[in-house]
Amino acid sequence: MAKKFSGKIDLDVRSSKADWAPFDLAKAPEGAPNVLVILYDDTGMAAWSPYGGKINMPTAQRLADNGLMYSQWHTTALCSPTRSTFLTGRNHNLNGMGAITEAANGFPGYSGRLPAECATIGQVLQENGFSTFWLGKDHNVPEQDIASGGSRSEWPVQKGFDRFYGFLGGETNQWYPDLVEDNHFIEQPYSPDEGYHLSKDLADKAIGMLRDQKASNPSKPWYMWFCPGANHAPHHSPKEYADKYKGQFDDGYEAYRDWVLKRMIEKGVMPKGTQMTPINPLPADVLPDADAVRPWSELNGDEKKLFARMAEVYAGFSEYTDVQVGRIIDYLEQSGQLDNTLVMYCADNGASGEGGPNGSVNENKFFNGFPDELSENMKYLDVLGGPDTYNHYATGWATAFSTPFQMFKRYSNYAGGTCDPLIISWPKGIKARGEIRHQYHHSVDIVPTILDVCGLTFPKVYRGVEQYPLSGVSMRYSFDSKPDAPTTKKRQYYAMLGTRGLWEDGWKAVAIHAPLSSAGHFDKDVWQLYHVDEDRSESKDLASEHPDKLKALIKAWFDEADANKVLPLDDRSAVELLGIERPQAEPPRDTYIYYPGTSPVPEGVAVNTRGRSFKILADVQIDDARASGVLFAHGSRFGGHALFIKDKKLYYVYNFLGIKPEQQLVSGELKPGKYTLGAEFIREKAGKYGESIGHAKLYVNEKVVAEGPMRTQPGKFTLSGDGLCVGCDSGDNVSQEYTSPGAFTGGTILGVGVSVGKDQYLDLEKQAQAAFAVD
Length: 775
Description:
The chain is α+β, with helices and mostly antiparallel strands. It contains 15 helices and 29 strands. Helix 6 (253-267) runs parallel beside helix 10.
């Protein structure tokens, strides 16, 4: 509550008395620590060396040696939902984040927008005297808001963060990222040829922010949320780091599981006697083909070589990023800040199975429901992890890095999707060094822990709105507890993409269901029961032995579902979810007009050409016979289309999921003059995987100058980023026929129109010429 003015106000300031108390800003509690939360993506507990894995993580190990490792810390099983719990301390459905933002739907638990009843940790700390910083991945901004003209209501700066530097979507190219600084889009500062990698850039920016804060307000504590792109696809690693692991995964993922479980038991991460679970634990009629694991013994030589290299690249990506995090830790130590900095080093869900049984050199194929092909993937073996690939390993490695549990990311019913590494170090506040804690906890417990350590409580009312109570509990008691001391947590529900479960007092009930399966019929799900306190890997179903216990836990799940706005359940496919029609600030229209000199238009708000006929027209003045460059581009080398001039000829390229050769139409020579240049795709039918099959035409004015068969993608070019551009191509180039940015020179682009309506080509041409008319 604001303090009343207690001074004296007279006619003359000389006879008045000032009182600064009502205007003083809040100060952090005396001695409050700095807080650094490092949140990796897509990392199972069996991946990293501190937990027994093969991936060398020197910084994580350094922090573990100087603090604690947790063996039963859990997440929601998916990115945006887990990150929302880190933001607010409430369960993900209460936050409106029942799925990733790209799958938002018009229900309270799935809106993709934080309700006013869920203020953030950034807002609370900011208003209590902390500096607040967020770097790296966001993935809590609605897709339609990721736009230059979109609402900023869910962007980090509006959610209590003084500074932001990173990317707003679910993933980004680590060599060519889609960057935002504070409230605006920016281009990356330098290229991969000059040594750029996003992990390095994020560490540079983090250190810079901390140095600036230290220079001006050295006594003020700070909170930094550092969210690298690692280990989410694309798995982009400097080659020298991937090469460090050469041969280390040649025995395959089953051999890795056996090896790492022994190591986890030896380290005390898993209890003695922990049982291994099968690589394909779900019934055949439940397990989606895309989530199946192919036994290593059934792979041919090329497949083994490719799959092993995919794991090497993933490992290199993880270690390289850890080394960059180490630079931040080094700075904190050198500047005398590390001793009183609470550091949490963790991951947001289990290892990812989105590469499918065969892995992928372009993960976007998964989101388009399109299979990979071995001979195509083998072409990229020697450049895997570099700018030419958007790679993701096979499901076998997701199972291996989530050892000893069942399944992986997206499966909230099993620990393979939810049990993740968490390392906590706070030299000044934690006496223990190099110990393990086995208390059961969840990502909703992070915010209460931070507030407890900082000496703060969450406000009951924020900006006039009564707040939902925190869903989690503080973990601070565990800092000084015995490794096996009882947890203070009593119950935690799980729900994600149609999967569900509930943990309570050491027991767990789970419904046998697969995410993104479109199976439905949730009322017919069979439930399993595990005694997690005695069976850490959830290997023995006790449903038939304890029917009353199972019945009680199922009822408890429905109680939690009602309290947390979980229903309705949705297990529809990725293509269906990503294609949900959502409210837009701008109503859909038949024709979209774009002009040069504007920022890239993100896919969520750009013209949607998926599954339909479309036409692209550029009104262009060519002044120089050597004119060249991009007229229109949308997407990247991993999927997209572009209209451009090269060698005096007009090109239209549709790059179908990065599969070569590129589909292209080429004109004859263009001479200086005024032109309407364009391409048209006429959809004729759907292909086997939902792709559009049809006929394309290339136009110079009213004349068809080239035509031929073409197929277009059923899903998006990217989850977020690589937006629609006019006059250049941002980030990664759509076609190998030019190099980004491919800026158009030698003339003027008056504008580009894209039609997805019923207008015929010549009608649109007239409309576009009128819209682009100049004196």
